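Quick one, tokens below. Sequence please?
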């Protein structure tokens, strides 16, 4: 039986991802329980498991209620700030979801938080707030060295990987990307396509990893020409990927 993946919009710009086969469902980062329950009831789905990427409230606040109501398993990082996790997982662990005939490998991606993890398998990546379309999460707890290492691990995944992050930030991220790379026609095309989707209240997600590597400034820290051009334009010394990432992250924070 084939699977489908759909977003449940919550709050201002979050998505809870639902992976289902028409009978059973697995959800990712439920920041709120009620919209998830409404979706499950509407589509007559049984909740089998919950995947958690990190401890921020908008990703976990529905966890306790959903587990109590559905008696399902949960998988999340080794992190004391998250309660109600039945299976703590770390780098290289495999999460088996037999009801959906799926399995995901755990990838540790510190940077946004120190204990952030992603779930990868079947050319699908659920990456929480580590990577966004045309951007990345704020560096709340990690270091530039940690964060760039995490992003580089994701860049090594299959080019065909479809990336499911948890925020609709694409247009604001594109605005920043155009500020620092104004002559990039491919970014302009992505902006036009994204604006069209949002005008119909459709998500800009997921996105294909191979496309993102070419356009997302935070995935282009190994692009020497890009780095040199910005270094000259901004009159800053950018010696390596970590310093370039730190520069980009600070610039985006102040954008």
């Amino acid at each position: 039986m084939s699977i489908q993946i759909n977003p449940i919009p919550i709050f201002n710009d979050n998505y809870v991802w639902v992976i289902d086969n028409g009978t059973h469902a697995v959800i990712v980062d439920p920041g709120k329980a009620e919209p998830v329950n409404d979706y499950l009831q509407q589509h007559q789905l049984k909740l089998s498991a919950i995947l958690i990427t990190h401890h921020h409230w908008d990703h976990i606040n529905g966890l306790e209620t959903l587990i109590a109501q559905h008696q399902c398993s949960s998988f999340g990082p080794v992190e004391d700030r998250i309660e109600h996790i039945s299976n703590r997982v770390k780098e290289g662990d495999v999460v088996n979801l037999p009801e959906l005939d799926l399995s995901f490998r755990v990838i540790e991606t510190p940077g946004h938080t120190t204990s952030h993890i992603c779930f990868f398998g079947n050319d699908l990546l659920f990456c929480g707030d580590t990577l966004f379309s045309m951007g990345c999460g704020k560096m709340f707890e990690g270091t530039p060295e940690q964060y760039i290492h995490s992003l580089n691990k994701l860049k090594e995944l299959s080019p065909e990987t479809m990336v499911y992050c948890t925020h609709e930030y694409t247009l604001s991220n594109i605005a920043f990307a155009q500020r620092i790379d104004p002559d990039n026609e491919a970014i302009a095309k992505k902006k036009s396509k994204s604006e069209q989707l949002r005008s119909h209240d459709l998500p800009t997600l997921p996105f294909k990893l191979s496309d993102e590597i070419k356009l997302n400034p935070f995935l282009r820290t190994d692009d020497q020409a890009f780095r040199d051009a910005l270094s000259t334009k901004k009159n800053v010394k950018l010696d390596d990927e970590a310093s370039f990432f730190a520069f980009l992250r600070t610039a985006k924070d102040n954008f």
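The longest helix spans residues 185-199. The CA atoms of residues 134 and 216 lie 4 Å apart.
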